[in-house]
Specification:
The complex is a heterodimer of chains A (94) and B (859). With 94 residues, chain A is α+β, with helices and mostly antiparallel strands. Chain A contains 2 helices and 4 strands. Chain A has a domain at 18-78: Alpha-Beta Plaits (2-Layer Sandwich). Chain B is mostly helical and 859 residues long. Chain B is built from 48 helices and 8 strands. Chain B has a 5-stranded parallel β-sheet with strand order 2-3-4-1-5.
């Protein structure tokens, strides 16, 4: 995996889990949801919103599942406790 | 070159298959599908080479290279390129599922291949996500076509055509709705077509699908699975845990016969099952489909999953598929069993070129399930990566555990630890002490069952090779010869050519010196024969320039130099250098510098010899403890310093030696050279006295020949021609059986030999040969004969030459040098003509041989 994660070499990443929100197109059924046991799902219109605490490797694991299952990823946000808004240049970005 | 980069289910592979299958293909097709989660680049490259061989029929008779733990990916990329260059007509190289290639080295190796493809070769890559290949040059040159997700989406018209072709009657509105709902996603349309075929009410199906908010794949796969008979559904769910399945395995997991027929039917129905071999015995599921099935089986049959994995693991271990067996044992949650399997097979996996796979399996153990036996596996990975301190630490853990292991495992663990300790000690050049602990390796492993003995054979062969090698390097003959020979025989019996070649290569090295003051009959001829046999065997497996054969290549080069065949020796030495590109072990590098020094010294080029002996001495100082060749290296370093008029430096090196080393024959000879350089021939005679009367320990009789010649030179300087001739005759008598030349050339004994009455000498033929070589090897003559093109290449050509080993294209070289493309092309043509080569890679090789690429020679 290191080949895909150059940021791991720099030691600047926050090791602590942070809250994330991931928005996927369509409603995920029980089978697909079982791929994301650490995330809480809810429907938002025609989308599924998954939220949960993830550290960087858990986040990349979730992204790999989304890719493998051919899901349509619409949005991904790191939520900060004080302001529920996206944090530009999140520390997991390479 | 074309890249198809799009998410799962976009229809990449289907597009490729359809394209490849269309009639009138002018190109031959070489197709490689990357295995799921491929960690070891070697397996990918071998598959690629095999595909090219099948596609082109070039070298159809030649064996594929066998797997080797010393895999050199860049050399392999070169090999693939040359195979492609030789292929007649056009070739299309297809690499499917490139995103599965997870070897960290693979991207740069692949970039090397893709940026230097010959014009008649077209490459097509498919991948789920963009991979880091440095292809921007191709992109800028307009030689890269990209097909992305948007290009692969079906249009509404194409959706209707697909439905028509599948025999599905659907209204235009229905087709439009289906297209809209799937957004033209290929996997969705294909799944829908499967469910629609034979559906009683196609319009209603589409309407319901369209009205659902569920994701396309989940909805359609659920629909499809619902329509399957129970036995088919059960088979799909249970076997989805496997990366690939055959009828026997599927029968085992379902507990029912007849699975192969079901798999064949599913493939025929185009239902996301595809066979992997022409005989249709192995199958795999489409990745996306398999992933969804796996989620489904975890949800619906969670209690059965560990048992299913256990059954699969049992099947794979019975069929020798160790990595897959370990993966399933881990998935079953049987961590202790998995740890033992991994430890027991760590030697075999390494030999099979699966070192990275092994490390990935190691990382899969959760924190709480670490086991002391895994320390052995970690040590092996550390050793392979050259992390010697970490290897030692992990070995210490494994060794402590091996003292009180569970019943039945002690012997095996002890042998494994000892074999690794020897390997580590050899890398560090610290053999004293370890050898004694390791002697027990020579007796066979006896396990409680035949299977245990068979499993231990790899380990035992490795142990014998490491032991014999360590003995050879510390001059522990004749045990070295016996153990290496035994290792080679065992390796042949168990079908481990890598170990057989390794043992035979070390055997070649082991036989050159034997610590005896008298020559053995035909010792050099025997050594050369052994080396050539080992090299021939290595070549049969495609390892002619791999690190494993380097000891034999080097020993052959060394014997050539000893026999005065300097040009031939130089050729073998260059090949040894190429073989050692990836091996940085100080022991073998030491020998490389020493042999190069011998070559220069034999040609009378003492400054160059000094450089090489200095490098060898530096490496020797890094090796702990005794080292077989250390005295010879140091002796020659001192002698060369003295010959170059630097007696002060020579004496400084001498002063730093302890008494034991200072009294060795090799160092006594060096003292004699200092004395001769100082104009003290009497001192020289005193220095070699202990060598001549046999009281000084010597590496071999070559040291005695050298001592005789130094004595002869001393007598000559004292004006005692008769004693000088007697000494020279003694040297000739000793050198006769091997027809040794080097000591005469190194000591500068031409005048001494010329003074001998030629027609009366007992060794007239050897003497005549010697004088020929000595006169042919004067520095001036050699400088001219071996390097003519260096004088002929113009400064401009040399500047271009320096860029040839890089990946830069001609236009890029032109821009680097701030000259026109035309100028670069003209220079290139002229370089090829002068070096008498036809292409870039042979120009680089020739330039290396002629040493034209070094910084000194390029302005």
């Amino acid at each position: 995996m290191q080949g895909h994660l150059p940021a791991f070499d720099h030691g600047v990443m926050d090791p602590a889990p942070a809250p994330y929100m991931i928005r996927i197109n369509g409603h995920l059924g029980a089978t697909l949801l079982s791929a994301f046991p650490a995330l809480a799902p809810r429907h938002d219109g025609a989308h599924t919103v998954l939220t949960g605490m993830l550290d960087c490797s858990a986040l990349y694991g979730v992204l790999a599942e989304i890719e493998a299952l051919g899901l349509d990823l619409l949005e991904i946000q790191k939520l900060t406790p004080d302001r529920k808004s996206p944090e530009p240049g999140g520390r997991c970005s390479p | 070159m074309t890249i198809i980069s799009a998410p799962a289910g976009s229809g990449k592979t289907s597009l490729l298959r359809a394209w490849a299958g269309r009639p009138g293909q002018p190109h031959r097709l070489a197709l490689v599908q990357v295995q799921r989660d491929q960690r070891d680049a070697q397996q990918f490259w071998l598959a690629l080479l095999d595909a090219i061989r099948h596609a082109t029929g070039v070298n159809g008779g030649a064996e594929l290279p066998a797997v080797t733990p010393d895999f050199n990916g860049h050399a392999m990329a070169d090999r693939v390129l040359s195979k492609l260059a030789d292929a007649p007509g056009g070739v299309t190289l297809v690499i499917d599922d490139l995103h599965e290639l997870r070897s960290p080295e693979a991207p740069s190796q692949l970039t090397q291949l893709l940026t230097s493809l010959p014009p008649h070769v077209h490459a097509i890559l498919t991948t789920r996500h963009d991979v880091r290949l440095r292809l921007h040059r191709l992109r800028l040159a307009g030689e890269l076509a990209e097909i992305r997700a948007a290009d692969l989406r079906f249009s509404e018209r194409e959706t209707r055509e697909l439905l028509d072709a599948s025999g599905i009657a659907l209204s235009a509105a229905g087709a439009a709705l289906l297209h809209q709902r799937t957004e033209g996603w290929a996997a969705g349309l294909r799944l829908a077509a499967l469910s629609l075929a034979g559906h009683p009410d196609a319009e209603r199906f589409v309407a319901e699908f369209s009205g659902s908010d569920r994701t396309v794949a989940e909805y359609l796969i659920a629909e499809m699975l619902e329509r399957q008979p129970p036995d088919v559904l059960d088979l799909l769910l249970r076997t989805s845990l496997l990366d690939r399945v055959n009828g026997e395995l599927a029968d085992l997991l379902t507990g029912r016969p007849g699975s192969e027929r079901i798999l064949l039917t599913l493939e025929d129905a185009n239902a996301f099952v595809e066979s992997l071999d022409p005989g249709r015995t192995w199958f795999r599921y489409h990745h996306l489909f398999a992933d969804l099935l796996r989620l489904e089986v975890r949800r619906t049959l969670p209690a059965e999953i560990p048992a299913l994995h256990r059954r699969a693991a049992g099947w794979f271990i019975r069929h020798g598929q160790v990595a897959e067996a370990i993966r399933h044992t881990q998935a079953a949650g049987d961590w202790l069993d998995a740890a033992r399997l991994l430890a027991d097979h760590s030697f075999s996996l390494t030999l099979d070129g699966q070192a990275q796979t092994m490390q990935a399996l190691l990382r899969a153990f959760p924190r709480g399930e670490d086991h002391p036996e895994l320390a052995l596996v970690r040590a092996m990975g550390d050793l392979a990566q050259g992390r010697l301190d970490e290897a030692a630490a992990h070995l210490a853990v494994a060794e402590t555990y091996a003292k009180t292991p569970p019943p039945g495992r002690q012997r095996r663990l002890r042998v494994a630890v000892a074999a690794l300790k020897l390997s580590l000690a050899r890398r560090r050049g610290h053999l004293v002490g370890v050898m004694e602990q390791a002697r027990f390796l020579a007796s066979p492993v006896t396990g409680p069952s035949d299977e245990d003995i068979a499993l231990g054979s790899d380990l035992r062969a490795v142990a014998l090779m490491n032991l014999g090698t360590a003995e050879a390097w510390s001059l522990g003959l004749p045990e070295a010869e016996r153990h290496l020979r035994e290792g080679a025989v065992l390796a042949r019996e168990i079908g481990r050519p890598y170990l057989e070649v390794g043992c035979l290569a070390q055997l070649g090295f082991a036989s050159i010196f034997h610590g005896a003051a008298m020559p053995k009959i035909d010792a050099f001829a025997t050594t050369q024969r052994r080396c050539r046999e080992a090299i021939a065997l290595a070549e049969r497996y495609g390892w002619g320039t791999e690190p494993v054969i380097a000891p034999a290549l080097m020993t052959l080069a060394g014997t050539m130099v000893w026999l005065g065949e300097f040009d031939e020796g130089e050729r073998w030495l260059r090949r040894t250098e190429r073989a050692l590109q990836t091996d940085t072990g100080p022991d073998i590098r030491l020998l490389l510098h020493q042999t190069a020094g011998m070559l220069h010294a034999g040609r009378g080029r003492h400054p160059e010899a000094l450089q090489e002996f200095g490098a060898a001495e530096h490496l020797a100082s890094q090796l702990e403890g005794s080292q077989a060749l250390a005295n010879q290296v140091t002796g020659w370093l001192i002698a060369t310093q003295a010959r170059l008029g630097r007696p002060g430096e020579a004496r400084a090196v001498l002063a730093a030696l302890d008494d034991g080393r200072a009294s060795s024959g090799e160092i006594r000879n060096a003292v004699a050279v200092i004395c001769l350089a100082d104009g003290d021939p009497g001192g020289a005679l005193g220095a070699v006295q202990s060598v001549l009367d046999g009281t000084a320990p010597v590496l071999g009789y070559v040291t005695v020949v050298e001592a005789d010649l130094l004595a002869g030179l001393a007598h000559r300087a004292l004006g005692d021609q008769r004693a000088a001739s007697q000494a020279a005759e003694r040297a000739l008598a000793l050198a006769e059986s091997d027809r040794l030349v080097l000591p005469f050339a190194m000591t500068g004994s031409a005048a001494l030999l010329e003074a001998l009455p030629r027609h009366q000498a007992a060794h007239a033929a050897l003497l005549a040969d010697l004088l020929d070589v000595l006169h042919g090897s004067s520095p001036a003559a050699k400088e001219q004969s071996s390097l003519p093109p260096a004088e002929e290449l113009s400064p401009g050509e040399l500047r271009v030459l320096r860029y040839l080993p890089t990946n830069l294209s001609r236009p890029e070289i032109a821009s680097e040098l701030s000259v026109s493309l035309n100028t670069v092309s003209t220079h290139l043509r002229s370089i090829y003509a002068k070096l008498q080569v036809r292409d870039r890679s042979s120009a680089v090789q020739r330039a290396r041989e002629l040493r034209l690429l070094g910084a000194r020679r390029t302005p």
